């Protein structure tokens, strides 16, 4: 048995030292990795273990000043697929296509894409979502989502604006107040294995989403409704390109209504409302289409400056009266031609039959250019421009909407020639926006304070608690109370006796001014294209509203502000004042006219054709309110009742036995979070049947909020703790 | 020297401790895989328990089996082991994860011939060199036969595309030659051959060269060949000093593929922290120390070489495993002796320890 040599033993010792060296080196390396670099490596590891799932906050509601919902979010569902997890693509596509009523091929393509996730369809109905969940297809996921809904459709759409598919505000209040409406997204952080499945350890963290705040507008849904209706009528009647109406409360600067027609439906902002235009747009290239969209979304009331014409004489008058260069009784002379202005030949609009001698007040009633040019020249460029600027022309009103224009006003009186001063005195050679004009006229009406137009009253949270309120803000004092009163008196006479007669409403003292100007396109006056406007303040003794109607390119028989815009303004003023419960005060003369009354006939139990004929014969107008009514409809009630004495030409409202399509349309309210008692109250109020399941607070409802319902449905309500 | 003495107690305890740690860690690290793929979380635990039981029997058997008898049957053992390796190329060879390294006998019994070849080659080379004690410095009589043994055994393993195992074995067998007293000049001659061989092996297979590339900057290739290295580093890093706690590894959840095998030490580092991994390394160092001590104390050359070979095998394999896990060398698949999952390997290592223990009974060792 050979024994190991010494060399062997020596070498064994060497080996032991070499191995020990390596082991020691590895221990050092291990310590370096685990302790020195530990934190850094741990961070990398944490990053791959944790997956954050975004939780979308609920977007705030946009209310009108009375709490009516103008824009809201309704629950919806979105279907996603993760192609890698899909087992049988063909079968899955078939089932999904069947449930969602989509093209099978399209779905097949989507679920076989080389993508981590692919959206199949956004905003499916609850029923579809339930069916899909039941089908239990691997790789198909249904995510709770919110859909923006505008219950009033194309109503105040230029103000409210709209959002993109991910609920980011793109336009209007939705954009300007996006950061408040949006809320803060939450995150659900969980630890997952390498395949995305949740790990059995805790370490899960939920950061709740903070829901967005709701915006309360100064807008009044009812007044907006009057304005919408009047603008649409005017648009059609005058065959105009645009009609804008702004209703402002002079004392606060609150915008009560603002409309530009034509408009769009924010529920579907990229599709025109008009079917004909829809057909025209169908084959347009995308670039051209984009241009049309922007045109459609353009809000004439703030995005476009126009030459105001005679409505601007209010500003000249205010400056003249404030600076004492004229009084209402100061006499002026109109000789048709206005002389003494170098390099220009300016005429009064009635140069062929000059106004002759007249007081300043009469000059205003006549809208005589000569009078205002005289006032302007007496003021001089410097003072005139000072007032023009003081009234806010040439600068943004800072209304809470995007794309506001500042208009065009000379920057320095030294650059103004005499002719510029003369034309500016009657509203030519400058450009203003409708919102600037109505704000300036409000300053005239409220005693001289130029207000900042207010569109948003306050921000409230989910419980209705005011989080932030925006006060009315006076920017500066422009004229004195006396000037304001004097001017309102003059403007009232314009309506009662002068060019503004068409705006006259019996019983209400309306102050107003017409305006007609030729349109300037690319720096030249465009032949045959006019902008007719009327601005009104009422009641003149205690102004509640300032209304501006601007008719862009009226294409009808008349293009004068007095005949196109004034009747529209008067309609809005009358309806608004009645709604605001301002009692008409009749003058003696009006009372006399009112005394000429007739008795309302009894048309009840007649059919619509006979009733209509009878009323027309007697000189009445009538109103049926219900569209799509048939000829056989029988009048079951009327207002005023038979025998009531009314003015000639009054309107009789008729009620029929048939229920028109829209008469019993209701919108399903959002019941979530309410208790049983509240729900009963709401549903009883809607006069619908209901089924309840469980106790506590509402967690689910069918139909969903925002859906049109009628009395024949049964509402299913599910409460938080369901006990079978 | 026929007196029977007690065997090396430190070695025995260290071994049993490591096997015990191995069972726990195999159970912990295999749980997710076993549950998801086999729907049975205890699958690997059960198999490892059975293997360690068989291993213990083997250990006790060899502890009482006079190692000198191995000297006599060294050649048959070697031939048998080589033949078992050839079985892979018969229909009995079983493929797993794209590598044909297993032999299936019957329905449920598979084993890894490379483990058997390792031991067979160690026994035979030790026996050969002990017999040729005086010719050890002769090129033809000492070096060439040794190199033939190395070539045969390593070549057979290399044919299974198991580069790292054949490298391990080559290093082990060269260690035996070194201890036996082969002239340093021959090792000097072997170095360029070895370097060339390693270079050929790496450049010959695309995945090997990609692994080397990924080794140089694992985070750059995080989603490709650097994946395992990065995941192993993440595991060690998140373990820190004290570890996440037994059973609480996150990396075993499919971040590290088959964490109970070639990356079990990463999970040890993650769950038990630096202190836990240091303990495991220390246990290995104890075994290495005792193994070398036994080789130093035995007055029989065959025993000395055999003890050296067995210790070298454990050492080389442990060092490579640790180096891979700490991303100190390119990623390769070497299980941790006595700890990693794998029946054949565990039984053979425990058997080898049994042989070592038996050798220790023939020494004048201080057996504390």
Automatic annotation (TrEMBL), chain B:
<keyword id="KW-0472">Membrane</keyword>
<dbReference type="GO" id="GO:0005886">
    <property type="term" value="C:plasma membrane"/>
</dbReference>
<comment type="pathway">
    <text>Cell wall biogenesis; peptidoglycan biosynthesis.</text>
</comment>
<keyword id="KW-0328">Glycosyltransferase</keyword>
<dbReference type="Pfam" id="PF01098">
    <property type="entry name" value="FTSW_RODA_SPOVE"/>
</dbReference>
<keyword id="KW-0808">Transferase</keyword>
<feature type="transmembrane region" description="Helical">
    <location>
        <begin position="263"/>
        <end position="289"/>
    </location>
</feature>
<dbReference type="GO" id="GO:0015648">
    <property type="term" value="F:lipid-linked peptidoglycan transporter activity"/>
</dbReference>
<feature type="transmembrane region" description="Helical">
    <location>
        <begin position="73"/>
        <end position="92"/>
    </location>
</feature>
<feature type="transmembrane region" description="Helical">
    <location>
        <begin position="223"/>
        <end position="243"/>
    </location>
</feature>
<keyword id="KW-0573">Peptidoglycan synthesis</keyword>
<keyword id="KW-0131">Cell cycle</keyword>
<comment type="function">
    <text>Peptidoglycan polymerase that is essential for cell division.</text>
</comment>
<feature type="transmembrane region" description="Helical">
    <location>
        <begin position="142"/>
        <end position="159"/>
    </location>
</feature>
<comment type="similarity">
    <text>Belongs to the SEDS family. FtsW subfamily.</text>
</comment>
<keyword id="KW-0812">Transmembrane</keyword>
<dbReference type="GO" id="GO:0051301">
    <property type="term" value="P:cell division"/>
</dbReference>
<dbReference type="InterPro" id="IPR013437">
    <property type="entry name" value="FtsW"/>
</dbReference>
<dbReference type="GO" id="GO:0009252">
    <property type="term" value="P:peptidoglycan biosynthetic process"/>
</dbReference>
<dbReference type="GO" id="GO:0071555">
    <property type="term" value="P:cell wall organization"/>
</dbReference>
<keyword id="KW-0133">Cell shape</keyword>
<feature type="transmembrane region" description="Helical">
    <location>
        <begin position="338"/>
        <end position="359"/>
    </location>
</feature>
<feature type="transmembrane region" description="Helical">
    <location>
        <begin position="112"/>
        <end position="130"/>
    </location>
</feature>
<feature type="transmembrane region" description="Helical">
    <location>
        <begin position="171"/>
        <end position="202"/>
    </location>
</feature>
<dbReference type="GO" id="GO:0032153">
    <property type="term" value="C:cell division site"/>
</dbReference>
<dbReference type="InterPro" id="IPR001182">
    <property type="entry name" value="FtsW/RodA"/>
</dbReference>
<keyword id="KW-0961">Cell wall biogenesis/degradation</keyword>
<protein>
    <recommendedName>
        <fullName>Probable peptidoglycan glycosyltransferase FtsW</fullName>
        <ecNumber>2.4.99.28</ecNumber>
    </recommendedName>
</protein>
<keyword id="KW-0132">Cell division</keyword>
<keyword id="KW-1133">Transmembrane helix</keyword>
<feature type="transmembrane region" description="Helical">
    <location>
        <begin position="48"/>
        <end position="66"/>
    </location>
</feature>
<feature type="transmembrane region" description="Helical">
    <location>
        <begin position="301"/>
        <end position="326"/>
    </location>
</feature>
<dbReference type="GO" id="GO:0008360">
    <property type="term" value="P:regulation of cell shape"/>
</dbReference>
<keyword id="KW-1003">Cell membrane</keyword>
<feature type="transmembrane region" description="Helical">
    <location>
        <begin position="9"/>
        <end position="28"/>
    </location>
</feature>
<dbReference type="GO" id="GO:0008955">
    <property type="term" value="F:peptidoglycan glycosyltransferase activity"/>
</dbReference>
């Amino acid at each position: 048995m050979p024994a190991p040599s010494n060399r062997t033993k020596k070498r064994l010792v060497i080996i032991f030292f070499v191995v020990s060296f390596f082991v020691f080196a590895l221990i050092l390396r291990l310590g370096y990795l685990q302790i020195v670099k530990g934190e850094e490596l741990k961070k990398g590891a944490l990053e791959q273990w944790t997956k954050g799932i975004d939780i979308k906050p609920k977007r705030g509601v946009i209310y009108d000043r009375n709490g009516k919902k103008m824009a809201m979010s309704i629950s919806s569902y979105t279907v996603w697929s993760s192609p890698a997890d899909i087992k049988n693509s063909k079968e899955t596509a078939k089932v999904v296509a069947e449930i969602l009523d989509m093209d099978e091929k399209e779905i097949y393509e989507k679920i076989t894409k080389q993508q981590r996730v692919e959206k199949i369809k956004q905003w499916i109905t609850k029923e579809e979502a339930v069916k899909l969940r039941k089908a239990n297809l691997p790789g198909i996921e249904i995510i709770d989502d919110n859909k923006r809904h505008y219950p009033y459709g194309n109503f105040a759409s230029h103000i409210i604006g709209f959002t993109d598919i991910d609920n980011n505000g793109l336009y209007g209040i939705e954009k300007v107040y996006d950061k408040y409406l949006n809320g803060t997204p939450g995150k659900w952080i969980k630890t997952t294995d390498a395949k995305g499945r949740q790990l059995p350890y805790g370490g899960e963290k939920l950061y709740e989403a903070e829901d967005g705040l709701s915006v309360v507008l100064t807008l009044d849904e009812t007044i907006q409704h009057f304005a919408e209706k009047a603008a649409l009528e005017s648009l059609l009647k005058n065959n105009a390109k645009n009609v804008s109406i702004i209703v402002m409360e002079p004392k606060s600067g609150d915008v009560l209504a603002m409309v530009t027609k034509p408009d769009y439906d924010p529920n579907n902002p990229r599709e025109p409302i008009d079917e004909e235009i829809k057909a025209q747009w169908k084959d347009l290239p995308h670039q051209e289409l984009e241009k049309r969209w922007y045109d459609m979304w353009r809000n004439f009331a703030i995005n476009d400056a126009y030459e105001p014409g005679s409505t601007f004489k209010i500003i000249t008058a205010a400056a003249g009266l404030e600076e004492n260069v004229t009084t209402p009784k100061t006499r002026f002379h109109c000789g048709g031609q206005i002389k003494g202005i170098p390099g220009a030949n300016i005429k009064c609009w009635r140069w062929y039959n000059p106004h002759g001698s007249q007081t300043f007040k009469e000059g205003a009633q006549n809208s005589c250019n000569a009078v205002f040019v005289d006032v302007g020249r007496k003021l001089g460029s410097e003072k005139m421009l000072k007032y023009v600027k003081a009234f806010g022309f040439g600068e943004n009103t800072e209304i809470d909407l995007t794309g506001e224009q500042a208009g065009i006003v000379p920057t320095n009186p030294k650059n103004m020639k005499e002719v510029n001063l003369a034309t500016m005195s009657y509203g030519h050679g400058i450009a203003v926006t409708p919102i600037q004009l109505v704000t300036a006229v409000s300053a005239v009406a409220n005693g001289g304070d130029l207000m900042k137009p207010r569109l948003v009253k306050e921000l409230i949270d989910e419980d209705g608690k005011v989080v932030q309120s925006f006060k009315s803000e006076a920017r500066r004092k422009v004229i004195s109370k006396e000037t304001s009163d004097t001017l309102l008196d003059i403007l009232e006479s314009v309506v009662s006796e002068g060019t503004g007669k068409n705006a006259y409403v019996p019983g209400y003292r309306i102050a107003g001014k017409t305006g007609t100007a030729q349109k300037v396109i690319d720096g030249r006056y465009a032949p045959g294209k006019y902008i007719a406007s009327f601005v009104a303040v009422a009641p003149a003794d205690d102004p509640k509203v300032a209304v501006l109607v601007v008719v862009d390119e009226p294409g009808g028989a008349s293009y004068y502000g007095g005949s196109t815009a004034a009747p529209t303004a008067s309609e809005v003023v009358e309806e608004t004042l009645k709604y605001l419960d301002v009692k008409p005060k009749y003058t003696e003369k009006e009372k006399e006219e009112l005394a000429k009354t007739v008795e309302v006939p009894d048309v009840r139990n007649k059919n619509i054709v006979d009733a209509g004929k009878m009323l027309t014969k007697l000189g009445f107008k009538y109103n049926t309110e219900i569209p799509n009514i048939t000829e056989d409809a029988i009048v079951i009630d009327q207002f005023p009742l038979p025998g009531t004495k009314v003015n000639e030409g009054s309107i009789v409202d008729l009620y029929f036995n048939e229920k028109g399509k829209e008469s019993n349309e209701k919108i399903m309210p959002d019941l979530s979070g309410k208790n049983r008692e509240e729900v009963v109250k709401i549903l009883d109020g809607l006069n619908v049947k209901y089924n309840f399941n469980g106790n506590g607070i509402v967690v689910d409802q069918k139909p969903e909020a925002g859906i049109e319902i009628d009395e024949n449905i049964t509402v299913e309500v599910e409460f938080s703790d369901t006990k079978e | 020297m026929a007196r029977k003495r007690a065997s090396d107690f430190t070695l025995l305890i260290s071994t049993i401790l490591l096997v015990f740690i191995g069972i726990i860690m195999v159970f912990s690290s295999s749980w997710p895989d076993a549950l998801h793929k086999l729907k049975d979380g205890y699958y690997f635990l059960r198999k490892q328990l059975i293997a360690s039981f068989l291993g213990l029997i083997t250990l006790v058997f060899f502890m009482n089996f006079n190692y000198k008898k191995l000297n006599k049957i060294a050649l048959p053992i070697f031939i048998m082991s080589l033949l078992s390796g050839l079985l892979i190329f018969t229909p009995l060879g079983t493929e797993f994860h794209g590598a044909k390294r297993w032999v299936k006998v019957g329905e449920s019994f598979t084993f890894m011939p490379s483990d058997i070849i390792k031991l067979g080659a160690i026994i035979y080379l030790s026996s050969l060199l002990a017999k040729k004690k005086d010719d050890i410095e002769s090129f033809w009589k000492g070096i060439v036969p040794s190199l033939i043994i190395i070539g045969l055994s390593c070549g057979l393993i290399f044919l299974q595309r198991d580069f790292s195992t054949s490298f391990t074995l080559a290093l082990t067998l060269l260690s035996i030659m070194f201890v036996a007293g082969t002239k340093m000049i021959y090792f000097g001659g072997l170095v360029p051959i070895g370097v060339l061989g390693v270079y050929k092996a790496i450049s010959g297979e695309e995945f090997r060269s990609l692994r080397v590339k990924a080794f140089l900057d694992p985070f750059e290739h995080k989603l490709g060949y650097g994946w395992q290295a990065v995941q192993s580093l993440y595991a060690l890093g998140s373990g820190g000093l004290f570890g996440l706690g037994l059973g609480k590894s996150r990396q075993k959840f499919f971040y590290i593929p088959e964490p109970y095998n070639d990356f079990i030490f990463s999970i040890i580092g993650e769950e038990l922290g630096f202190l836990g991994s240091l303990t495991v390394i220390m246990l290995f160092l104890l075994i290495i120390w005792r193994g070398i001590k036994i080789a130093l104390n035995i007055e029989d050359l065959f025993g000395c070489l055999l003890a050296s070979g067995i210790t070298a095998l454990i050492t080389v394999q442990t060092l490579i495993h640790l180096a891979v896990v700490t991303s100190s060398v390119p990623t390769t698949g070497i299980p941790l002796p006595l700890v990693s999952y794998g029946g054949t390997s565990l039984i053979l290592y425990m058997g080898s320890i049994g042989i070592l223990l038996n050798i220790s009974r023939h020494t004048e060792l201080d057996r504390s």
